[in-house]
Design a protein that fits this description.
about 15% helix; alpha+beta; single chain; 14 helices; two-stranded antiparallel sheet; 44-stranded mixed β-sheet; flat; about 950 residues
């Protein structure tokens, strides 16, 4: 017994010593090897990462992720790939890699078998040009089979563990947004193998997913257990077993995903079978979930969908999408409902080939429910296409809205009234072909009443009778009657009566009368956007036919009445700020909508309009029409900068094009976007106009907007103390680019003041800093604006005359260096009064026609080429006394700051033009010095370039005259 006891104690002693030794090793090894491990990990990172990598501190320990020996870094920051190398791709509180200790000790290799990343933010981004910020991994170059005896750092991943991540994925090419918060992920498998199975456990606390700004998931939780076979050679993912749970709704996925060079190849099937209506409703937007908790829900549902095909923006390929939703014998009832909603049935199929709206097919085979006796609703609807849509619909029902309200248990809304509908339609709808399905039906609402918790008073006495009929499937037989539509709000009755016949040449009778407090009615629906004091007062009678307006038969129109707006806010998709219509009084008289009084503000700008619009009925009937008119516009101040599309403002309802442009160019202002559906002439009187820090005063002239272009004709304004006359044209191409033509004349222009106050003068005429006095200009230009509405100088083309009236030119280096060599100080202050300088501009070069001036008894002349960046290729001929018939040629090269001269030479060194691509608004090549050529070659090339410049000026002349 004693022997056994000693043996046990001895064994425990050695086990204790062994454990202590192991613990000692766990503690000491990280202290002995940190430099080796850190060096190897940095080598691996530097070899494989193109993005900038930063971190604060590195640790080596067994205890953070026991039992693995881990290298950990704190506060890691990895920036994106070009062109987003300044933006964060990944930041994490801790990133750790697990090391295979046996390989490291016995083989001298560092094998990384696990990765841990905690408290991280990943910002994955693809812009509208397809440029991604995540291409930071540098693949190994192709080479002969690897030498397996080589030692070093390698990946042998078996585990990836992510804890508490926030991932944001934006793809502007696919118009997709994914925002996942509270993401926890564990992936196990042979991640370093060419083909391996990845077992995944995924949990997301809050997931948002939107496509084309439509949210299909918002604040949803997600749980996933996945097995995915990954082929790293072909970059394919086979979804073998993938079980998801979105809130309470289970989904099973199978299929294949392949990553292509220019997109994806998808074959995905998903199903949620034999689920309950409650589980299905759990994926509704968050505002409906509280309602679902307190509502009785019974019944079964099934959901199936598939996504198959290639997605490639360069090749314009998109996958096919199909879906099927089935709900059977559903019951919805609130606790207080006297009658539940019974027999809720939905059978819906969606077929969306190539994600093309023109091929979209919807087949609602059944939508029905019962709310007790005489309260039933049935709908069958089938459509195919969009612009030419096949329609087959049968809708019928009679519902007491109060019963429906009580059955559903609506919390924020009370509704009453009797609704009766019976509508059948079969045929093709095509606006272009003037086709409309054969239709017969009506919708009636009697004694309607609507109240929400957002506003204390209801909209009441709502009565509506709408009839629609079409007998032969064309626009000509279509008739719509809304007789009447009435309601009371805040003690003010509103009455609308509409009778529309023959939509091919619309015959209309419209009567509207009432006062509507727009701000308060928006409060009823808990909507923002219009001012709470906004008011509309209408008393209108509109009778006529569409063709009377389009063919000029205005005497046959019978339009009369008034429309008054007060304190109304409005915005458009292309302006950053909100228009505030303080007062608008409009009178309708036959073909004209006359602005009797209109005063509005936009940011710091203000507008007063007086005039009329034509074609208003045709415009509102056919949205492709153009709204024409003639106005006088008076303004105290207009700040053009506020109208640039990417400027910050209070408008949150911008177009997707503007939204993406701002996201991709956050520091850019964009350009001003001109409406495409206006043909309006404006007589402008503005006391002051501001543009990029430059003040323009006493603006008078005619502006017109037509087909998305802005024209100025005979427009006069004061600029830096001079009166300038301008004819111009402006057109935006995108939120980031625009083009323009301009012809301007100005007398008594102060050169030094212009040089100090106008950026464009400083950049286009660098030598103006050596000139003081008064000049006159007669010049024409065309070109492009960049994303900050600055001129792109290599895009400029044109030319004109600069007349030096009363000027002093001092210390112009190009002349001073000649004077220093001939001993003539007068070259430092030449007499150029009365000289006309003719120049032409193209491809960032300025071509100067020969002009003469006086330097004491000498008669020099100058001709040649300069660039906006200061390069010189100029010939100065120094005319000798008595009349300058004999001259000494001097070739001037170098730059305007460091000119080089060569006496008795007519040959300088040619400047190669800049190359500019107008289609993509990009400078392909800056101008530069050419290689030395013979005199004959230079003269021939110079003449060709000057000819091109003169032709460009002529074309600008033609463009301005045509406009």
């Amino acid at each position: 017994m004693e022997t056994i006891k000693k043996l046990v104690l001895k064994t425990l002693k050695w086990v204790g010593i062994f454990i202590a030794f192991i613990l000692f090793l766990l503690f000491i090894i990280p202290l002995l090897l940190p430099e080796t491990i850190s060096k190897q990990v940095k080598i691996l990172a530097n070899k494989r990462l193109a993005g900038e990598l930063e971190y604060k501190k590195m640790h080596l320990t067994f205890f953070r992720h026991f039992p693995a020996l881990t290298v950990s870094v704190d506060d890691l920051l990895l920036k994106g790939s070009k062109p987003y190398q300044q933006d964060t791709l990944l930041s994490a509180k801790e990133v750790a890699v697990g090391i295979n200790l046996i390989n490291m000790i016995f083989d001298g290799d560092v094998k990384i078998g696990a990765i841990y990343v905690n408290d991280a933010y990943a910002n994955v981004y693809v812009d509208s040009k397809g440029q991604a910020n995540y291409n930071v991994y540098v693949s190994s170059p192709a080479k002969s089979p690897a030498d397996t005896t080589e030692k070093g750092t390698s990946l042998k991943l078996g585990l990836v563990k992510l804890k508490n991540w926030h991932i944001k994925y934006k793809d502007h090419t696919a118009k997709i947004l994914v925002d996942a918060k509270g993401l926890n992920y564990v992936g196990k498998g042979g991640l370093s193998e060419d083909i391996f199975d990845l077992k995944t456990d995924l949990k997301i606390d809050q997931l948002d997913f939107s496509l084309n700004r439509v949210y299909y998931a918002k604040q949803k939780s997600l749980r996933a257990h996945l097995i995915t076979r990954i082929n790293t050679n072909a970059l394919t993912f086979v979804l073998k077993k993938n079980e998801l749970k979105i809130n309470d709704l289970p989904l099973k996925f199978t299929g294949l995903v392949s990553i292509l060079k220019d997109g994806y190849d998808l074959d995905i099937k998903a199903a949620s079978e034999k689920t309950t209506i409650r589980e299905m409703i759990s994926v509704l937007p968050p505002e409906y979930l509280d309602w679902a908790k307190d509502t009785k829900l019974r019944g079964n549902s099934d959901l199936f969908f598939s996504l198959k095909g290639k997605f490639s923006k360069p090749r314009n390929l998109k996958p096919n999408f199909t879906a099927h939703l089935l709900v059977e014998d559903g019951v919805i009832s609130s606790k207080k409902a006297p009658v539940p909603m019974n027999k809720l049935n939905v059978d819906l199929n969606i077929d969306f080939p190539a994600l093309d709206p023109e091929k979209l097919g919807l087949d609602l085979k059944k939508l029905s429910f019962d709310l007790g006796e005489k309260n039933t609703f049935r709908a069958v609807v089938k459509t195919k296409g969009l612009s030419e849509m096949k329609v087959n619909a049968d809708i019928k029902g009679a519902v007491n809205l109060q019963t429906l309200d009580e059955a559903l248990g609506l919390k924020d809304m009370e509704i009453r009234g009797l609704v009766n509908a019976d509508m059948k339609a079969n045929g093709i709808f095509s606006k272009d072909k003037k086709l409309f399905p054969k239709t017969n039906g009506f919708l009636k609402l009697k004694d309607g009443w609507l109240k929400t918790t957002a506003y204390p008073n209801p909209i009441k006495n709502i009565n509506l009778t709408a009839n629609i009929k079409n007998t032969d499937g064309t626009f000509s037989s279509l008739g719509v009657k809304l007789a009447p539509f009435k309601f009371d709000f805040e003690g003010n009755p509103v009455f609308v009566d509409v009778d529309l016949q023959n939509f091919e040449d619309l015959l209309y009778k419209v009567r509207a009368k009432g006062v509507l407090n727009v701000g308060r009615i928006y409060q009823v629906f808990a909507r923002k956007g219009l001012d709470v004091s906004g008011l509309i007062r209408a008393d209108l009678s509109l009778n006529g036919r569409q063709s009377y307006a389009t063919t000029g038969q205005y005497s046959k129109l019978d339009h009369k009445g008034t429309l008054i707006l007060k304190n109304i806010k409005a915005h458009t998709a292309y302006l950053p700020k909100t228009f505030y219509v303080k007062e608008g009084s409009f009178e309708f008289k036959n073909e004209k909508m006359r602005f009797r009084k209109f005063y509005a503000t936009y940011g710091k700008s203000d507008f007063s309009l007086n005039g009329h619009l034509l074609n208003t009925m045709n415009y509102f009937i056919d949205r492709k029409g153009t709204l024409s008119g003639n106005f006088t516009l008076n303004a105290n101040y207009i700040l053009v900068d506020e109208f640039m599309a990417l400027k910050s403002g209070d408008n949150n309802d911008k177009s997707l094009e503007v939204e993406y442009a701002k996201a991709e160019n956050p520091k850019s202002s964009g350009v001003v976007i001109i409406p495409k559906n206006l043909d309006v002439s404006l007589k402008v009187n503005a006391k002051k106009v501001g543009f990029k820090g430059l003040d323009i005063n006493r603006v008078q002239g005619v502006a017109s907007i037509n087909k998305g272009q802005l024209f100025l004709k005979n427009t006069l304004f004061d600029i830096i103390g001079s009166r300038m006359k301008v004819d111009a044209r402006y057109q935006d191409e995108s939120p980031l680019t625009a083009n323009f033509d301009i012809a301007f004349k100005v007398k008594n222009f102060n050169v030094q003041r212009a040089y100090k106050e106008i950026d464009m003068v400083r950049e286009m005429a660098t030598s103006a800093k050596n000139v003081s006095g008064i000049v006159s200009l007669d010049y024409k230009l065309k070109g492009d604006f960049d994303q900050n509405m600055n001129p792109i100088y290599p895009s400029l083309e044109g030319g004109g005359i600069v007349n030096l009236q009363d000027v002093a030119v001092k210390d112009l280096k190009m002349l001073s260096v000649i004077g220093d060599n001939v001993g003539a100080d007068a070259f430092n202050n030449p007499d150029m009064a009365g000289v006309n300088i003719v120049t032409h501009i193209k491809n960032n070069l300025i071509y100067i026609n020969e002009f003469k001036f006086k330097v004491s008894v000498l008669r020099p002349s100058i001709s040649g080429t300069t660039s906006f960046n200061g390069l010189l290729d100029v010939l100065v001929k120094v005319g000798l006394p008595p009349a300058g018939w004999v001259s000494v040629p001097v070739a001037v090269t170098g730059t305007s700051e460091k000119p080089k001269i060569k006496f008795f030479s007519r040959n300088g060194q040619r400047i190669l033009t800049a190359v500019y691509n107008k289609k993509i608004n990009k400078v392909i090549r800056e101008e530069k010095r050419d290689q030395k050529r013979s005199a004959g070659e230079q003269r021939k090339e110079k003449k060709a370039q000057e000819k091109k410049a003169k032709n460009a000026e002529k074309q600008v002349n033609l463009d301005v005259k045509e406009n």
